[in-house]
Each structure stands twice: as C-alpha cells, then as structure tokens.
Design a protein that fits this description.
Oligomer: single chain
CATH topology of one domain: Diaminopimelate Epimerase, Chain A, domain 1
Number of strands: 28
Helix content: 25-40%
CATH architecture of one domain: Roll
Structural class: alpha/beta
Shape: globular
Strand content: 25-35%
CATH class of one domain: Alpha Beta
Radius of gyration: 23 Å
Distance between the termini: 22 Å
Length: about 500
C-alpha cells in the first residue's frame, strides 16, 4: 500500500526543494516529495490518503548524543531532581529502598547540590541513615559524580587505603576517610554495580521509553555509552520488537563509562571520554595567574594512538570534550592522528564543546570535524558567567567559523525535547526565562537543521534520514505550528501531533 500525505507545509531540509506540499510513502521509504497534485498522481489500487489541511511536516528529529539505555531504567530509581534538602534526598532514597527487590542496589539520580538548602553534597553517613541494609548510590544530575553509602563503598572496594584513580577522585574528610563522594572514574565500580541487576529489566522498559521518545518527535538516537552487557540487552530488545525508534549504539568498555574502552563490543562507533563532565578540564586566569581545574582522562599522544587504532579497525569515534583543556587535547590528538590517517576526518567528531575560545574554534574549524552540542543544557541551566576568557555554548560563533554543528539532548543529563533545545538555541533563554549570551543565538532554520539533517550527518546517517527526500527512510513529524513562523519564546510550546517512523504512525495526537 502507498500512503499519500497531502495539503501540508513540508519543511524538507533539502536545499534543492526547501518547501513542498506533499509526500508519498511506500515500504517504509519516501517515494516522492513535491506538490499535492503531483503526489496524487501516484495513487495505486491500494492507497491511503492523509489530508493534513495545511499543517507542518518536518523530518523526524535525530538525537546523536543520548543515553537511552540509562533513561529507560529511570522509572525504577529514586528521582531526586526536585530535592531541596538532604532530608528530601534521604526520604526519596528510603522510599526507593522500600520498593527495591531484595539483592538489588538502591539507586537515585538527579540531585543538584546547588538546589539544596545545605548547598553541599550529602555524605555516606547521611545515605546510611536512609539505606542501611544494602548498597545505595545517589547520582549527581551530571552522571559524572555520585555519593555511595557505606555498603556501596565496601562493595566497590573503596577504603581509606584506596588510591585515587587516574581521571577520578575519592572524596575524603580531613582524616582521610572516604566521605562517599566519588568523582568520574572513581565512581566506575560503584556505578556499574548499582546498575547491573536493574539492566535485566531493560527490554521491558525500552518499549515504553521509546514510545515516549517518539512522542517528542525523536525517530533516531545514538546511545552514547553502551557497555558490552547493554549491547546484549539491545539485541534482545530488537529481537522482541521493543524499540519504537531506531537506536545506533556507541560503545564503551565494561569497566565503566569513563574508562578506556579496551573491551568494547563490536560496532561502528566508539566513545572516548577526553575529560570530565561537571568537573571538566578547564584553564582560566584568576587574580593574574592561570588556574587549571577538573579531570583530564588522556594525554594528547595517548589519545591520538587510540584514534588511529580505532580508524584502522573501521570504527568511528565520539570524543567527549567539555572544557578548554579537554578540547585542546582532543583537537591536538585528532590533528596528530589525521597526519597519519587523513581519512579519519570523516570518522571522528567532538561532542559537547561547551567551554571554547576563539582560538579553539579556529582549530576545530581547520580540522573539519563535526561538533555535537547540547542546547538542552542551556534550557535547563542558569546564566552565571563562564570562567574568565572562556565562551560557553557559542553556537553562533561555531556556525560562523564554518564548523559543522549538530544538536542533541544528552538525556537524561539534559531535557529530552528537541523543540525545547531549539527554543534555547534560538532565544538563548533557560526554561525560567533567564537570558544567556544573546549574541550567540542562531536562526530557527539553523537550529532545526542542527536537530535533523545536521544531526543525521553527524551520526553517519545523512544518506538515509534527516531530510525529506525520495529514497530516504520515511521518518517525519506533523507539528501543530510551523516553527519557521514562530517567535523564539513560542518554539518550546510547538506540539508534535504525529510521529512516523519508517512509514508507520507511532504517535498520534492529532
């Protein structure tokens, strides 16, 4: 059967035909995109006619840096995003413990010390008060640090004598005793242990989670941290038909998200964490002297060698780099690796790139690689000034430098909605209306392209999706309003009425 979608405003993201009126779909593919009369000529004996009465159609959103495998399990854990005190955290963890099956770790997520009345992280002793009889781990909203109770520290082998790992730190009190706070790679054993038992529920949770993604207009995601165990879970989910959207896996190793991916599962994409997250590697001037803070996971030469090896094995690489020191390391390593493997330019990208300088922007432009940024962080965040001399999320400067820029959510670290991200990139305002660096705003079309064709190209999928062109996969959305005719503050309110994935209607609110 052929499906004819007519009388629409079709924003194709195809520069050869930017706006069309209709499209035809058969066997999961776009047969033709053009005018209504033209498409009606394609009727067959068995056809479906959908008259959209002028509504707007856009390509399905592509999210090239997402953590679906983490977010899909969140409903089982204590949600601490709204906690405003340590007592709130204790109550949430205690309630989670009451419903956690025997033998499983208690896991919480999303706390932000800046929102707490105490203005500090909780301690192992305070978690012990909430959960005393089993291991418990409470993750920071960044997922790059967490607090473990005493049983969790013991299970992870963290004691007073345990040295800080490279690229991580064990929080300690003045006497040297672990406080429970674990940063970056120091968190790996506890985080892995807290998650392993829950992952058996992934297939069951993936169905509802993927439908929720589709309701936001997301038709393809790239899961940016897939362990070997989770790669097996994904295979099970596909076999069970549990995924309503397409997922491309980016592999990490079994030891932890942030550790070297020496035993990563096979697949076309590999993930390398160059620096930390909430404590990324940054350098700035303070009181007339240079200060360097945060965690750097690789030196330039070491990273270049890993890149070269991955490219020669036929893999693409995502380099997580947030701070200017991390970005300098990534850019330098990519340049070094390209000297020996020029074809690697198409096989590497830099994700996040939050704290930039004009010099760094120029270096990345010279490399000719993709940058995947997260306007969701701006939407969720506050407008406090970045460290002196650093630009934070300079979307416009990146575009003007000629860098290929795509957008993503990094969910659950950032808000999932692509339309909220687009609103933030265009209006440079948080969800609370705070303005941040208005001169770095980009146009609505640029933001829309960054979440569709740009995102698809960054994920290596531009040949198959991201724009509405004959021959591509029939992933498209019906929106309540034409975003190109909206004001910046209205973009987050645009509704996804229908989501089509491979020519099938997955979400219908029309």
């Amino acid at each position: 059967m052929i499906t004819l979608v007519v009388n629409a405003t079709v924003l194709t993201m195809d520069p050869t035909l930017p706006v069309a009126e209709a499209l035809a779909v058969k066997d999961g593919r776009l047969v033709e995109v053009g005018g209504t009369d033209e498409i009606l000529w394609l009727r067959e004996d068995d056809y479906e006619l959908i008259d959209l009465e002028g509504r707007t159609v856009v390509p399905g959103f592509v999210d090239p840096h997402n953590h679906f495998s983490i977010g899909a399990l969140e409903t089982f854990w204590a949600d601490c995003r709204d906690a405003t005190s340590i007592a709130d955290l204790q109550s949430a963890m205690a309630a989670a413990a009451a419903r956690t099956p025997p033998g499983e770790w208690v896991r919480g997520l999303g706390y932000d010390a800046r929102r707490l009345r105490e203005r500090r992280d909780p301690t192992r002793a305070e978690l012990d008060e909430a959960v005393a009889d089993r291991p418990a781990l409470l993750l920071h909203f960044s997922h790059h640090q967490g607090v473990a109770n005493s049983r969790a520290l013991a299970a992870a082998g963290v004691t007073r004598a345990t040295p800080d790992p490279r690229g991580g730190e064990i929080g300690r009190d003045r006497s040297g005793e672990p406080t429970g706070l674990l940063y970056e790679r120091a968190m790996s054993d506890a985080e892995r242990g807290s998650r392993e038992g829950w992952e058996t529920r992934f297939v069951a949770s993936a169905a509802a989670a993927s439908r929720a993604y589709a309701a936001q207009g997301i038709t393809t995601i790239q899961d940016a941290a897939v362990t070997p165990a989770m790669a097996r879970r994904y295979a099970q989910a596909r076999e069970a038909g549990a995924l309503a959207i397409d997922v491309v896996e980016t592999m990490v190793g079994s030891r932890g998200w942030f550790d070297p991916p020496d035993d990563a599962a096979p697949g076309p994409w590999l993930k390398l964490f160059v620096d930390g997250g909430y404590r990324c590697a940054v350098r700035f001037e303070r009181d007339g002297r240079l200060v360097t803070q945060g965690f750097l996971f690789y030196e330039r030469g070491e990273l270049a060698a890993i890149l070269t090896s991955a490219w020669r094995a036929g893999r693409r690489v995502v380099c997580h780099a947030i701070g200017n020191v991390g970005l300098e390391t990534a850019a330098g390593a990519i340049a070094d690796a390209l000297a020996g493997e020029p074809a690697g330019r198409e096989r590497v990208r830099i994700d996040h790139a939050i704290f930039l300088t004009p010099e760094l922007i120029g270096r990345i432009a010279d490399l000719g690689v993709w940058v995947v940024a997260q306007p969701s962080f701006l939407w969720d965040g506050v407008t406090s000034a970045p460290p002196p001399g650093l630009m934070r999320r300079p979307f416009r400067s990146v575009v003007e430098a000629g860098i290929s820029q795509a957008f993503s959510s990094d969910f659950p670290c950032g808000s999932l909605s692509p339309l909220a991200g687009i609103a933030a990139a265009v209006g440079r305002r948080t969800r609370h209306g705070e303005l941040a660096d208005a001169d770095q705003a980009i146009s609505i079309r640029q933001a829309l392209e960054a979440y569709t064709i740009g995102a698809a190209r960054a994920a290596g999928l531009g040949h198959d999706r991201g724009s509405l062109e004959a021959g591509k996969r029939a992933d498209f959305l019906v929106l309540s309003t034409n975003p190109l005719q909206s004001q910046p503050h209205e973009l987050a309110e645009v509704q996804v009425l229908q989501t089509w994935v491979s020519g099938k209607l997955v979400t219908n609110k029309a």
